[in-house]
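SAMPLE LOG
Freezer: B-3
Tube label: C17
Construct: single chain, 194 aa
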Amino acid sequence: MVKENIGQKFEHLLKVIQEGNFLSMKALGGEIPFFISAYNPEQELEVTKAMKGLVNRLENIGIKVLELNLYDISLQVLEEELGEGEVFDLEKELNKDEFKTTLQAIIDINEVFMPRLKAMIDASAAKVYFITGVGQVFPFLRSHNILNNLQNIAKDAPTLMFFPGKYNGQSLELFGLLKDDNYYRAFNIDKYKI
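STRUCTURE (predicted):
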């Protein structure tokens, strides 16, 4: 995958997100307000740093952001269910498939994970939601499942998923290698015109 100029990418994101039509979701023609910003996974640290700067800049101009870090939320759920640090012991005891199945059972997307995200969104006065940590939760949580399930939850503000891989407007390729199920409902924010 080609490396991008992350500074330019995030200046574009700042301009798009602070634009009135973006925040009010008027320019979407009734479509779900979901956006994806794909990036080269090799630039993960650079993107994480730039994203934190973007949050600060947006909040300084009065645009509150709710970051939904899938990894952090998953870890919170696991620690609540198993106890602090127990997930690492579980990983040592089980083979990969058993471990994945166990994690998916504990973090059940419909019964546990999405209600957690809903509670976070409902408690927030954010004007935009950022989904991060996508690569860190693979394979026990999949990005297309998160987006499909968020359609009924994240309706009051635009949602932007930072995706380590490729998005061509039709399919997601995690890390540029693993084709996820097709997902047609999100806009590529990197191509969004102001």
